[in-house]
């Protein structure tokens, strides 16, 4: 609902504050497809983010976001035929290896240990209150 109302208010603001700029735009199929591609990309981003956070956690998600810069480099090389420094390739490999190492490690090592106080381990445990002096 936040996205829906955000879009609604953004359209109203654009109609009020950016009317002259919108009228000055020369609309073409390429420009419209660019906006559609941008919209689809962000729809996928905001739709997949909760799923990734639920299945893999925030650390894996943040590590994955590091690769977005690397994909920009790939586009720069293949679409614009520009050269990049060799360190880009090294950093891409380091981030990729970091993602692999993180995804292959045990998710919650505390759950596999024997309980010390006889209370069975679970994902959530009550915290004992400390006396206030």
Give a summary of the structure in a few sentences.
By secondary structure, this protein is mainly α. It has six helices and no strands.
What secondary-structure arrangement, pairings included, does this model have?
Elements: H1 2-17, H2 19-24, H3 29-56, H4 58-65, H5 67-80, H6 86-104
Helix pairs in contact: 3-4
Protein described:
The chain has 133 residues and is mostly helical. It has a domain at 57-106. Helix content is 68%, strand content 0%. The chain is built from six helices and no strands. Helix 3 (29-56) runs antiparallel to helix 4 (58-65). The mean pLDDT is 80.
Compute the CA-based radius of gyration.
24 Å
Q: What proportion of the residues form beta strands (DSSP E)?
A: under 5%
**Biggest pleated sheet:** none
Mean pLDDT: 80
Number of helices: 6
Spans with pLDDT under 50 lasting ≥5 residues?
none
What would you call the structural class? mainly alpha
- Helix share of residues? 55-70%
Helix and strand run: HHHHHH
| DSSP strand tally | 0
Distance between the termini: 47 Å
* Overall 3D form: flat
List key phrases describing it.
single chain, 133 residues, mainly alpha, 6 helices, 68% helix, 0% strand
């Amino acid at each position: 609902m936040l996205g829906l109302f955000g879009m609604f208010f953004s359209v109203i603001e654009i109609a009020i504050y950016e009317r002259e700029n919108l009228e000055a735009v020369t609309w073409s199929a390429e420009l419209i497809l660019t906006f559609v591609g941008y919209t689809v990309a962000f729809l996928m981003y905001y739709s997949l983010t909760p799923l990734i956070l639920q299945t893999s956690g925030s650390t894996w998600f943040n590590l994955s976001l590091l690769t977005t810069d690397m994909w920009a480099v790939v586009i720069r090389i293949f679409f614009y035929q520009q050269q990049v420094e060799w360190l880009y390739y090294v950093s891409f490999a380091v981030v990729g290896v970091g993602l692999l190492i993180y995804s292959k490690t045990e998710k919650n090592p505390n759950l596999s240990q024997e309980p010390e106080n006889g209370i069975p381990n679970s994902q959530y445990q009550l915290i004992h209150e400390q006396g206030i002096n």
